[in-house]
Design brief:
Chain lengths: 249, 275
């Protein structure tokens, strides 16, 4: 155990049950089943998308999560963001977290850029007057001045990501959870995000980032955790994890 | 840097529906969501206002044309259009609130699957939003009464109690149905069907006097029966519903609210698994 860890996860697991017999979606289907075969039991197949995942993230570090498709990386971030409840285990998070899950989903497509900034702030429990003060800074960082009053669904993916990153990085949260978000956006903006993140890290913020990009992981992360089919294959410095990575990919 | 808070995520135990602290902290979000919905509806003021009162006016018009031809339209000495409209007002509030509340989680799927916030905010916003339409409908009701030269009953203020009952019933049912809707997509059809029946099953286009005791009191098992009868009595002073029916309706409305809170509490953490 580290003394300066901001995230401690113990034995996190998530089980989904897949109903093989009747994956019904409608209430009337279920009633019909009940009338026709009242004594048939539900047959569900448990599926562990994550099992026994334990790790710690230290203050001020960049913690990478890597693994192939279906390794459970994004699910883990969702659990840490309290969107999905784990089936086993527990986690302690010290400080506020903001997350950018999937491309641009942190922003709401029907709302304008302006409304999104205020809504994201409210979700992070930041007072509206604080957001008002930071508003111009966020807009300037995202470089979206002239698109501010258009719905976000009219933005390109890159623009959505810029907005999401601008909001999340400007509002003061101690921990940033980022899922693949930096994969889009052009080189210039990517560089800007990196600079911004380095500055955040310098003042003690912590970043947890999911990525497929091994190059990026190697350059940017202090430590990485390798996941394979929901299990931890190893945690360590990127250089030490490369052999493990090669066997998993 | 000081640590502002520690979040503990557990696999066991349930997240509380809300705490006073979370209500305070997420107050801005509640206001923002509510304001956005209202704004969207009333952005073009005339259309928004018009739409809010079109439904009760059109339905009243249909009643006015049809019902007197069927019977002698016992409206207890009040002009029949006013009689029917007054009954329709709380019913349409309930309809709007329940429809919005039962759809609220499915409609906000992307918000629910990307950020954490107390889930109960969404049905709460739905039921509160419908109150704005109701206020507009009541404004038209007052105008209506002035035009007909009808003075409000002395127990006018009691109408708040009945609105509160409708609020509790709509929120309670809405909480249960919204989480069911996440799993079963045909819930919205069932809701629409029940609401259609409710237009006739509640004493909107007719007087409660067509039911004799003890059936009248027993009709209070349908909480909206008590709400519609009570609201009309409080505003127009006709057809006193009797305290037995009202107590029964209030009890059922509270029971629905309790059941809804329980169901929502038990199921709220599974919402994102299915969406």
């Amino acid at each position: 155990m580290y003394s300066d860890s901001v995230i401690r996860a113990f034995g996190i697991g998530k089980q989904f049950s897949i109903n093989r017999v009747d994956p019904y979606k409608a209430l009337h289907d279920r009633l019909e089943k009940l009338l026709r075969r009242p004594f048939q039991r539900h047959v569900t197949e448990p599926f562990w998308a994550l099992s026994n995942v334990s790790f710690e993230v230290r203050r001020g570090e960049v913690f990478g999560i890597v693994g192939g498709n279906g390794a459970g990386k994004s699910l883990l971030l969702r659990i840490l963001s309290r969107i999905i409840k784990p089936s086993t285990g527990s986690a302690e998070i010290c400080g506020r977290t903001s997350s950018i899950l999937q491309l641009g989903v942190a922003v709401h497509p029907e709302l304008t850029g302006r409304a999104n900034i205020y809504q994201s702030g409210a979700i992070l429990r930041i007072r509206q007057e604080v957001i008002r003060k930071k508003f111009d800074e966020i807009v300037a960082f995202a470089e979206l001045e002239e698109f501010l009053d258009r719905p976000v669904k009219t933005y390109s993916t890159g623009m959505q990501m810029r907005l999401a990153f601008a909001i999340m990085s400007q509002l003061d949260t101690e921990i940033l959870l980022i899922d693949e978000a930096l994969a889009v956006g052009d080189e210039a903006f990517r560089q800007k995000c990196m600079d911004r993140m380095h500055r955040l890290l310098a003042v003690g913020r912590t970043v947890v980032i999911v990525s497929h990009d091994l190059d990026f992981i190697e350059k940017f992360c202090d430590r990485v955790m390798v996941l394979q089919r929901g299990r931890v294959k190893g945690i360590g410095r990127p250089a030490d994890m490369l052999p493990v990575l090669q066997t998993t990919f | 840097m000081q640590v502002s808070e520690v979040t503990v995520i557990r696999s066991t135990g349930r997240e509380p529906l809300f705490t006073f602290r979370s209500l305070w902290e997420y107050g801005d979000l509640l206001r923002l969501l509510l304001w956005r919905r209202i704004n969207l509806r009333y952005q073009h003021t005339l259309v928004g206002l018009g739409w809010a009162i079109l439904q009760p006016f059109a339905t009243t018009l249909v009643f006015v044309v049809i019902i007197p031809r069927l019977t002698s339209a016992p409206s207890s000495g009040v002009p029949y259009p006013l009689f029917a409209y007054t009954g329709l007002a709380p019913w349409l509030y309930f309809t709007g609130a329940l429809t919005r509340a039962s759809n609220c989680l499915v409609d906000s799927a992307d918000l629910l699957s990307s950020v954490f916030f107390p889930r109960i905010l969404l049905p709460l916003v739905a039921v509160l939003e419908a109150l704005v339409d109701f206020a507009v409908v009541c404004g038209a009701l007052m105008l209506f009464m002035v035009l007909y030269g009808v003075t409000p009953a002395p127990m006018l203020l009691l109408s708040f109690v009945f609105v509160l009952m409708a609020f509790a019933a709509a929120l309670g049912l809405g909480l249960s149905l919204s989480v069911l809707h996440v799993r079963y997509r045909d819930v919205s059809f069932i809701v629409q069907f029940l609401l259609q029946l409710g237009l006739i099953l509640n004493p909107i286009c007719y007087s409660i006097r067509i039911f004799h005791q003890p059936w009248r009191a027993l009709a209070g098992l349908n909480p909206m029966f008590g709400v519609v009868a009570g609201f009309r009595w409080a505003i127009l002073g006709v057809d006193p519903p009797g305290w037995r029916m009202e107590l029964l309706s209030a009890a059922v409305a509270l029971a629905l609210l309790g059941l809804g809170l329980r169901t929502f509490h038990a199921r709220q953490e599974g919402i994102s698994d299915v969406l």
